[in-house]
Amino acid sequence: MQSRFKAAAILGALASAGSVVALFACSSSNQATTTPDASSSTSTSSSTTSSSSSSAVDASTTDSSVSDASPSDATVTPTFLAYFGDGGPKPEGLWRVGDADTPIVGLATLASLVTLTPDGGTQAFGLIGDGGATNNSLTLGITTDTAGNVYIGVAAVPVDAGNVPPPGVYRFPPDGGAGTLFSSSPQMNFANGFDFIGAQLYVADSYGYVFSIAPDGGAAVWSSDPLLAPDAAGCDAAVPLGVGANGIVNDSNNVYVTNTNFGRLIQIPIESDGGAGTPTAIVNSCSLVGADGLVIDTTNNTFLIALNIQNAIARVALDGGTSIIASGGLLNTPASVVIDTSTGTRRLLFTNATFFSGSDPGVLTIPLP
Q1: How far apart are CA 316 and CA 301, in angstroms?
Q2: DSSP secondary-structure letter at 228?
Q3: What is the CA radius of gyration of the chain?
Q4: What is the pLDDT of residues 72-88, one digit of tens each?
Q5: Rounded to two decimals, what is the model's pTM?
Q6: Per residue in 279-323, pLDDT tens?
Q7: Please, what sign has the CA dihedral across residues 37, 40, 42, 43?
Q8: Contact criterion met (CB below 8 Å) for 100 and 48
Q9: For a surface tag, which of 89, 142, 205, 284 has the fewest beta carbons within 10 Å of its beta carbon?
């Protein structure tokens, strides 16, 4: 575990947002930035991503056993799809938009979204408010509805600290432009992971909730089980601030949520009335500390999970068996993950959020079997 990281590290990243704006101005055009290592970062083709929020996993029973996962298990090497330049903006959220399923990226400290261009550059998509540097806020997870509207979460870190933009869920029209506040709640202060189930938007809030948001923006707590709660002291304080519920996906009968501080993968049954059943932990192990975004790989009914503080990507089975499929090297705080099949082969795309250092921000890819 990387327990040497202290809270000052992420607070420093937030405090430096103003300098990031200037760097972003140099890297947000549709021209690709030269990758740091051409031998390992050669991919600049355009990509599209397939939806993987719903799947056929549908686990009726699980156990909490977990095999040890270590960087030595890594078997694949990532390459850059888009490189933002060392010290550049911090990409966190990742999804896809439009008929071409173009990757869209949220920039955590800039209250803005960009799409990726075929040459590995970026194109401005939209801003929350005036855009520019945030103040004690982070822009995080992204998703879209069936009409093509784009949703992004804003977290208050910490709460009630002059947060700009204010916390909540913001919505953009399909063609981008200005984002407007779609949903907020006094309890929803760390909207992080998004997942649509029908017309309802489910939001994993890292202060320990899952919210269900109606089409009119009305938000209600769907689950506040203790398994979702944050605690910065979890796993020997490996993660330098309290981050509980984070990534979220669903199958036909369950919602699955990661807990970053404790390395949990949590299964929550969907009751017949749509309410939340009793959550259980498929994995509850510090071997998964830093568990962030996740996606269901329907080819083998496993979960692919970004382990941000470990600079790794894990594959987790329904029985809790875990292996590391990529780690170290170019990985730097991997956050959001999506599966792409547009090139005729399967690959995983993920963001390098670079919260703890400025090196190698961007969107990377690894092959999948």
Answers
A1: 9
A2: G
A3: 18
A4: 445 689 999 999 999 88
A5: 0.85
A6: 999 999 999 999 999 999 999 999 999 999 999 999 999 999 999
A7: negative
A8: yes
A9: 284
